[in-house]
User: Fold this.
Amino acid sequence: MWKTVLRRVLIMIPQLIILSILVFFLAKMMPGDPFTGQINPNTDPKQLEALKRAAGLYDPAPVQYARWVGNIFKGDLGTSYIQHVPVTSLIADRALNTFWLSLLTTIISYSISIPLGVIAGKHQDEWQDQAVQIFNYVTFAIPAFVFYILGIWLFCFLLGWFPISGSVSPNASGFWGTLGSQLYHIIFPAILSAVITTTGIVQYLRTGIVDNKVEDYVRTAHSKGVPENVVFNKHILRNSLLPIASSFGTVITGLLSGSMIIETVFSYPGMGKLFLDSIQQRDYTTLTALILIFGFLTLLGNLLSDIIMSIVDPRIRIK
Amino acid sequence: MEKQSDLLLDIQHLHTAYRLNGKFYDAADDINLTLKRNEILSIVGESGCGKSTIASSIIGLYDHKNTKVTGDILYNELNLVGLNESLFDKIRGNKIGMIFQDPLASLNPLMRVGDQVAETLYYHTDMDEKERHARVIELFNQVGMPKPEETYAMYPFELSGGLRQRVVIAMAVACKPEIIIADEPTTALDVTIQAQILDLLEDIQKQSQSGIILITHDLGVVAETADEVAVMYGGQIVEKADVKTIFEHPLHPYTRSLLNSMPQSEDEEEDLHVIQGTVPSLQNMPRKGDRFAARIPWIPASAHEENPVMHEVEPGHWVRCTCWKTFHFQDEVSGE
Assistant:
């Protein structure tokens, strides 16, 4: 077990190095430099040259790369061209917002999709299954932004149940007041993005149950006199949950990288919106920092998936 | 004289039909069989002849939506046909144990094998966890598991085919069932392991005084283990007798063809007999006349009964149809 984990962690090191090189050269190829945002008509080009030289922008690429990596280890991801604040502080606030929104989304998403998947798999080809399939088709086919805007129009605008944008009300005060306001702001986007992300889990679970139902070991369990509902819960369901357990790692990646669409539609200050804003404003330092972080999170998510798999499935464990 | 209690299972006029394209077709067609205590009854025949259908009908494990079972399967005056599921769950694993063909697929890949055996005990005994564990170890010893304690905590994929089948057998016999149904128990195993597993089954049968229904297509297995033999073709039993009679004095053309297709070590030069054609699919099975007639075309139609029935040609030896009287192999001279 521990050997599996250790091996997977070791594999991550070259992956991270390649990722960082890619991101670094991506940033080098982009127009602009750290001083672009500070240029105004009065700037002396010679003075700018001197500043650039002092900042090491004319050093050979490997030297610059080494310095950049060194800075990352010191927790310095550079300064935003546009906002003129360290990228780390920019990300820190958004990351927390995204974390809470994504966590709530994930919880709601699983609490919808697992029961639906179980119902569909258990009642394969019956009306319950068909109802779930219709739900699946609709949520899968409808574009997310259309779904969100319709949701906002119906529940925020017409019914006025939820706030249309933001992460907290400016009038909120005190610990509980702020927390309540935050929850009130994230609950609706969370529900919306949860509903639209159920398809995959429902389908995986349904297919898993349908396939496992006819497996020989299920027949064996029946031949032992194990009651029907126990056969389902203990034998069929557990085996069918494997692919979902393995997808959990990527879900965790999403917890921190957030969703660009939901955050933009709700003007929710999170990582996804920051990413989109940075693209629009050509804020390259922030952008490269975010790409690096998202890449790192993806690797971490895959690692977690593998670890989860090796916990739930004894066949994956390496001796 | 036989005591009444020696009769474990009495199958009468069993029909098991599967739904194909909306119509039901009999995969087991009017089966009459009995299983006695201390007896190994072997059901033998080609793939698709309905052997496994009988097994799944007895233990009540079939797709209830697409299967129709009629007739009687009497176990201690209890009719297993149409028995309510919760009652059946008290019999399955407890009074009737089942051993399947593929021991890897038959075990839950995510459960420790010991726990899978203990699960049977959980539902049929009032043992506590400790007692169940002890009983599983005892069973593992009984089925010849080399390291019972260590094996308990292993997963199916960590065991070899032979050991997995021992786990499956331990599972089937955990509650000392009166009836053990073994559906091709050695087909997926190496020849050397096959013999061990068969010996084990015989030992268990002797110890527990149970009756075993052994389903196989392997006549070698039949010769080695069976007491009584039922030969099946096309969903019907075509010949039924004790093992000695079947091997020394077979009558039905199908039985004779099967035995002739077995390799004989004495005459290595001789080619093996091949039965012409294949078993027709369920939908294409002729429902009238002798079902085997199409595969022995050189025998005139007049030799077959119009509606072949079982005849008791000598006490305990039953043969379907009368065509055996004039049957000869194609390369033999007619009327020999």
Q: What stands out?
A: DSSP finds ten helices and twelve strands in chain B. The mean pLDDT of chain B is 87. The longest strand of chain B covers residues 7-20. Residues 103-174 of chain B form one domain.
